[in-house]
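Write out this protein's structure.
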Amino acid sequence: MARVSVSIIGNALRGSLVREDVDAKARWFARHVVELLEIDLHVTGAERVPLGRAYVYTSNHQSHLDIPMLYASLPSPTLRMLAKKELFEIPVWGRALRAAEFVEVDRKNHARAIQSITRAADLIRDGVSVWLAAEGTRSFDGRIGPLKKGGFHLAIDTRTPIVPVAIRGTIGILPRGTKAMQKGKRVDVTIGAPIPVEGRSLEDLSAEVRSFLIANVER
């Protein structure tokens, strides 16, 4: 983890951060987390996602460990994430996140939240897949909460298929409000087929994604 962080920060400060390098380092870090915590990671459905285009990935959110699990699981070669603004306020680290094309989200400021969606749309048009948490925040009990609208607006506005992703088990490794991580746990990542957004309403898409998440998380 330290090696990846130092490398990304150093390159960001020198203005030499390359998209492909960020992809490689993020996936290396994800695999390292899986190995370090002895996670029994089971991924299903990656073959449902054709490569060669960008997608809006949206998943439930059980733990801070969801992000490395997604980088270890999702098939798209280039992936960036929308993250809460507090992470970008960390000195130096925040600058590195921005240089690496991660998108800052201020959930308390509507105007800035709209700017974040616009920035994510620019990435998608440049061929970068984008992930965001459908619920907007981590679950306390693992059950699926109400889904936020931002990801669906992003997909509809850019005419980008939505790929629903169900994460099950990370809450048992690092629950919300705790710092101690448990080793040797099983994590299931279930990737759905891309959902076309043309001619679909936000409410209809949200209901389909929610049904997928409930079916694969609360079973």
